User: Fold this.
Amino acid sequence: MERREFLQLLGIFSGAAILPGCGDDRSASKLVSYLVPPDEGVLPGEARYLPSTCCECPAGCGLTVRVREDRAVKLEGRPGHPVNDGGLCMRGQAALWRLYHPERLRHPLRRDADGQFQPVSWDEALTLVVEGLRQARQQGRANLLLSGRTTGTLAELQQHFCQQLEVEQLPQFEPFSHAALRQAYGILFAQPEVPHYRIDQSDLLLSLGADLFETFVSPVNYARQLSRAIKQDDFQWIHAEPHYSLTGANAGERLILLPGSEAALLCFLLVRLDAADERNRLPMQLMAALPASSLEETARLTGLPKRRLEQLAKQLRLAERPLLIVGGIATSQPQGLQVALLAGLLQQRLGMVGNRVDFSQAEAYASVGSLHDLERLTERLEQDQVGVLLVSATDPLVQAPAALDLKQKFQRAGLRVGLCDLFNESAQQFDLLLPLSHPLESWGDAVPRRGVFSLLKPAIAPLYDSRSAGEILLEILQRVGQQVQNQSYQEYLFNTWQQRFDQQQLQQFSEQGFLSLPVSAVPHQFRPEAVSSQLATTQAATATAPHLILTPSIRSFDGRSSCLPLLSELPDPLSTVSYGRWLSMAPTAARKLQLRDRDLVRISSGDWSAELPVRLQPGLAATVLMVQGDLLSEAPLPTDARSGELIRRLDGVRLTKLGGAVALAILSGSSSQQGRGLIPDPVHTQEQPLEQTRFYRAHPHKDYRWAMAIDLELCIGCGACAAACYVENNVPVVGQQDHLQGREMSWLRLAPFYDDAGRASFIPMLCQHCHNAPCEPVCPVYAAYHNAEGLNVQVYQRCVGTRYCSNNCPYKVRRFNWWQHQRQAPLEQMLNPDLSVRDRGVMEKCTFCVQRIRQARDRAQDEQRPIRDGEVLTACGQSCPTGAIVFGNLLDESSAVYRLAHSHRAYRVFADLGTEPSIYYLRKG
Amino acid sequence: MNRLILIVILVLLVGFPAAALFLLYNLPFDNRDPAPVQPIAFQHTVHAGKMQLPCTFCHRYVERARQAGIPSLSLCMSCHRSIATEREEIKKLTSFFEAGQPVYWSRVHQLPDFIYFSHKRHIKGGVLCATCHGEVAQMEVVHQVRSLEMGWCLACHRDRGAPTDCTTCHK
Assistant:
């Protein structure tokens, strides 16, 4: 090549490299006029906040939906709501992904003769349903409606629908049906309900298996209550479980039981406590029916030291307001019903029933069935008795136990009609698919527990040609002439509300989005005679080790939320695994088999086996293996014949080392703090601070210095903060491959650290907004700088991607965009327009939600006042179910953050580096 | 000779990037029409000029929100149902309105999408519309008169003592 030619080419290529950066996006070059101006109060470019109710799990938390230009961009817990009071879990945060899910059904679909789905109009689809119902009636086959847990007006409409159209309504299907609990309370107190547990009114909480923070009935509510309880000095919390849950990790004390010994423990406590006090003794006959439970025998069965058992009995006896909660894994086992019954007896004996175990505000689970109902359904399907099978907002095909083989038998229904939102694998088993609107697109209400009404109001217009379940049922009724013509579901709801509430209540309901009505106390009758026969079989069966326990998952609940990409991106709090499935096992057990993280093993029981990578779980009992249930849905789990609950445990499983390892995205670098004192132990607190030398001038602050306080006493490691941060700040979901390369983008990570005894502590780690930030002086282009309000700012337009800042950051909280992250349509619609989407090659990190500060300042300037304390809520702090994260102005001595930062518990991570972080952590105790 | 090569290399190494940067920032890469043709030839000279309607009569959100807002068609029609109905452009307007179709106006002033800009803050701070938009009342066809570049914004912010922190505008 000639030199001249070389230079020419060089010129062309350099020009070509520069030019693509020049043009800018002209797609937004139009201004679209309104035809008619929006309602007063709606301002273009300004957010609106509308009330709604979260439907991602059955808990029914209240929502505030932030809407920008008719797009829902963020969900927040609704302050004051009787269920969640402002907090929202990671599943609730991720519910937006369901709204904008690329797989959403966009119009009704019908399977044609070739088995292919063809779009049909609503008119045709509903005609097909009506016709199908009529034909089945003529043929003498039963028409059935199966739905997930439904409450409120929709439940009433379902009933009405079924009566009018001679459709049989099957008991509602929930994988976490709490059937054993309800059955036990039915036997004991004639109240087959899940009571409302008042944790904040107790001084001693003994929880047995119930995963209060993950999936048990109302996790955010329990977390809120526990945060209030923990603030009382005399509150004690003991959690007993055979496996390791997030709830156990946060309890004051976690007792490790041998699997299946919950009944033995309760039996012992019952006998001990009944004998301790002469008053209110349980009937002799009942006590005689209990199996003998000596201290030695109980210690042998439960694996707890004798001293601890006696102490536990004593603690319960001395407590003024004890509370016992059983559930979760404790009732999903062969002795589940006995556990629930014994717990009920203990609750009665210790005077919890009627106050801390509150049936008057029972959680609305009464119309939920158990797996027995699903078994009966499969029998009827086998006998070709089913005509039209309407399945509404539930996914039994994936969630029914593998042993039922529902998927195969499902094919025998005459016409399978699915009311569902996503076109996923189980949706493709239906003949006719009716797309459901997302709860944010629909009118409705929910009654999560007695006396609590929560409003569903469309935050945005439906994205597709979809309808809500209520609209569909009402229209079918209208078609067969059973309902007033032309009455919309909205009018139907309004009529129902007008009949139920008075004018004042109605106004409150529509304005605040929820309503708490006083409930009359439910008289409970204690019926000990019914129990004796049920308890006769209470024998502690010693099951053979090792045990495989299939746990509920905080990320996917029972598996229903696993389709939401954010929840795969967020790591599991205990194992920090994000993508893929894994088997948790104790480090001691792993050492025996010479297994390390990611080593592949085969786990088998009978003729079933599965291959999984291992993840060491400190603190787990050596005989217990743990997998999240929804990741191993094919496991041959039996159903408990008495309660109809799934038995989530396999005993005597075989574990074989396969050799080799698989790539598993484990986000935590180390399960130990390696003595660095991120969460200081007593050794660290006694250390003398090093003498500091300042290299840089102090930054002056005039009116504001933003700072954050994170109370580690309250932090439960649930990851709601990280989820909220993702949604608020347009943090990209990057997928498994990037996670395997350590390129996750989360601005906030929750690092669990385990001590030698396996106790976990969590610390949320995010940009510390250091006063002397190591990232700032190393940036060659001043992209990282310190502003006058104490924020460590990253200017994306300046950043050229040297990554020096990240290398120099001792907290490792900066994230680099290795790609131009793509968002599959229509997911880009949930982007927060208040901040930019970062390009490839740009460093990003926590901004202390600068857009929220800006918004608060705008409001304050309008009113000509300084920003008030508590006015700026960061997304993480807003979402935190326990209120552990407080944000505010450190210069304001009356602010909450100032008070916390000057608490005797306050410390700053790596304070001896002299970085002077703006985040103050408050250590436990 | 060696020295000559050294000079050439130096010129290439320093001169070429410098020239490239110079061109990058000075060549008119912004190929946007400064005065785009609008779907309806709306006359600011009549409305704001002759009739002396205040800007806020049509841009009604300018004092209350980030966006000034362009008038809804129903607002246009509240006058033009009876005024000047014979004109060609008003007929266009009426047909848009009657068909229930919004008008896609061509943007004259556009900031990059990573910029936070609030009309309300500027108006409340006493900045006149004309400071940024020019004397629109005298423009037959509205066109951009200010560069709207960062340096231009900052100059004014400095003069008026307005905040100049990056986070004020960069989002």
About this structure: The CA atoms of residues 90 and 110 of chain B lie 27 Å apart. Residues 38-70+105-169 of chain B form one domain.
